[in-house]
Amino acid sequence: MNANINKIHLILELRKLGIINTDILSVFEDIPREKFIDKELSYKAYHNRALPISCSQTISQPGVVAMMTQILEPKKNYKVLEIGTGSGYQTAVLSKLFRIVYTIERYKLLFQNAKNVLAKLKVKNIVFYHGDGLKGWPAKFLFDRIIITALAKEMPKYLIDQLSDGGVMVLPLVYKSEQFITRVTKIKNNVKIKKYWRVRFVPLLPGIK
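and the corresponding structure tokens:
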């Protein structure tokens, strides 16, 4: 009962933050965030705050996940790539809004944990890859949408190259030592950038662990 009440409070908070996409709000009602964190932190599952997970990483606060997803402007028929599977929570959100989700995680432990949790939740429209997210998807796909869930110090060229014409990428990006959520739109090999609000994300790192 408490979890349901906390979830209702979270949905109301997301509305106050400007989440107006009803499909996204419905997804946040459906997905059990407590499944993506340690049991001892489950009482904080529906607090609008980031929480620690394995490998010194975090599960982002629901408000940030919701806002980034809304800025992404999801459509069911779009092909989406997620850089940084992490806990799998953002992946689960995307799975309800896109037909297929491609996701890359550099940490083997997080990669396996996320696969296990999402399998238990019977989420089947995800293609996982353990690899270096900065290098993009290994096959030469073009994606309509790309979301990066770790801080980029500069515009990631490989990932821009994997955006389709008219495609959108949403990521935290460094501006003069501060981090801002940023929307990048690719139009005829040029990019249009829009900066949103200040955030704090763990860094986007090369290689695999």
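(Above: one complete record from the training split.) The beta strands are 51-52, 58-59, 79-83, 100-105, 126-130, 143-148, 163-175, 178-187, 190-198.
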